[in-house]
Amino acid sequence: MPQFKTRLALISSLCALLLPTGLPVQAKPAQQTRPSPTTTTIYQRAKEQLPPDLYALYRVIDRVARSNGLDSNPWRVGIASQYEINAFATEVNLIALYNGLLDQLAGDSSALACVVSHEMGHHAKRHIAMGQAQKAALIAQIKEETHREVLAEQQDAKTDATAASVGGSVVQRVIGGTLGNIGGNILGNQGRRRMADSQKRIDEIVATKTKELEQRLAEQVRKQEFEADETGYLYSVRAGFEPEGCLRAMQVLARTPGAEFDTDHPAVPKRIEAFKALMAKYPPQTLAQEGQARISATQPLTYDVSKDGQTLRINSRHGGSAAQDIDRKFGQ
Predict the structure, then answer these.
(1) Helices (H), the chain
(2) 3-state SS class at 89
(3) Phi–psi pair at 20, nearest 5 degrees
């Protein structure tokens, strides 16, 4: 999220923006069914084994994945040690959050869920894979256009320089003496100036094309951020978290430098207005009911801590071991 970034980056004044008092109070999600012994056992074990932040992230991803049908593949989450207000999605299924963001969202699981869901949305929308492919295509296009224009400039300069060189030699041969040398020098200087002007023009072309590339990439990223915001809202609310959590996450982000401006991420005030529109367009109670139906039909996802202890893998509904799956299917 921004700036919750794809690298994003990437992750874009409001110091304290609250919901207008005129907004209706959102209905609470439907009461959950009493957890089965299996559910209780898995969550209790996770709370005992995992550090508090990883436990919270595990519970968030477990609910978001199951309530939105995102549990057919595993998810991986990690915590970056830097104190930054940021999070990002990368690789195939990795979500990373910085310590600073976790600190600022402490005690607010709904805001945390919106951030995590935003990053899961980047993965679900294939923004990372598409972003890399589109960036490569844009760079190739810019290079091709620049190459054509540069070649034209260079050819014109060479033609002028050749003409000046030949003209200078002719003048010197025909006129001879001092006047011939002066005439030849004038034409030679004109050729050199044309070459220098050509190089300056080439530099200008490259600078212009580079700026165009940056602008087009930034526009693409801003569009993807709005898409991930919408997806994150739907995912987190469907998982039973408070819709206002997205606004509270934005309020934290609004305190960061430059948050009121469009960069490679949309300005935070624009994102806040978009979230308010989403809250009106998609009733939270309906979303929560949809998600609860899916959760009730599934089992809690298991997890595994990486060998280096840096990341947590939340397994898919198929479990975390192909060997165990074979044993379940065919016996030992």
Answers:
(1) 37-49, 52-67, 99-104, 109-124, 127-175, 177-238, 244-253, 268-281, 284-296, 322-330
(2) strand
(3) -55, 145
| Residue 121 burial (C-beta neighbours within 10 Å; 0-12, 13-18, 19+) | buried
Pairing of strands 303-305, 311-314: antiparallel
For 314, the enclosing helix (H) or strand (E) is strand 311-314
Among 289, 288, 299, which Cα is nearest to 40's? 299
Q: What is the pTM for the complete model shown? A: 0.71
Helix (H, G, I), strand (E, B) or coil at 77: strand
Interval 279-296: pLDDT, tens: 999 999 999 999 999 999
> In angstroms, rounded to a whole number, what is the distance separating the alpha carbons of residues 9 and 192?
45
Name the burial class of residue 81, with classes exposed (0-12), middle (13-18) and buried (19+) by CB atoms within 10 angstroms of its CB: exposed
Check: CB of residue 109 under 8 Å from CB of residue 241: yes
The model's pLDDT over 144-185, given as tens digits with 9 standing for 90+, comes to 777 677 667 666 666 655 555 544 454 445 454 554 454 445
**Domain limits of the chain?**
37-125+221-330, 131-216
90: β partners: 94
Of 259, 281, 274, give the one whose Cα is nearest residue 226.
274
Cβ atoms 74, 316 nearer than 8 A: yes
Which pair of structure tokens corresponds to residue 81?
């040690």
